[in-house]
Amino acid sequence: xxxxxxxxxxxxxxxxxxxxxxxxxxxxxxxxxxxxxxxxxxxxxxxxxxxxxxxxxxxxxxxxxxxxxxxxxxxxxxxxxxxxxxxxxxxxxxxxxxxxxxxxxxxxxxxxxxxxxxxxxxxxxxxxxxxxxxxxxxxxxxxxxxxxxxxxx
Length: 153
Description:
The protein has 4 helices and 9 strands. The strands form 2 sheets. Strands 1, 2, 5, 6, 7, 8 and 9 form a 7-stranded mixed sheet that branches. Strands 3-4 form a two-stranded antiparallel ribbon. The chain is globular, with a radius of gyration of 18 Å. It has one domain. By secondary structure, it is of the alpha+beta class. It has helices at about 5-15, 25-45, 65-70, 85, and strands at about 55, 80, 90, 95, 100-105, 105-110, 115-125, 125-140, 140-150.
């Protein structure tokens, strides 16, 4: 096989292997990193008495399911899956006094860490976006090393 053909075959194989997750982040790594970020947010939030928490997979490279919820801390409120359009009454006002959490796709950094953004909203007085930086703690887990506030209300 010619060198050019071999290179083309290798690129095609990598494209197929990474097609569902950008930049070669495996689905399981993306899933665990997202669970780490959502779990950290929920732990810091302290529950705040939300009647319901909606998680959106609209911007993720994988669908959310009940096995994802099992990775999260217990918060005392039911966790449902929904996109913003399904639960938003008006800009940033979520139905029934619930909380909506939307995470972005994990983006790899040159040093092996990941960056992931999380936005949240409930009403005009509670919402925002954080940028999380994660490092590999021990396989397959991730650890939050920094949180940058992008905006909050």
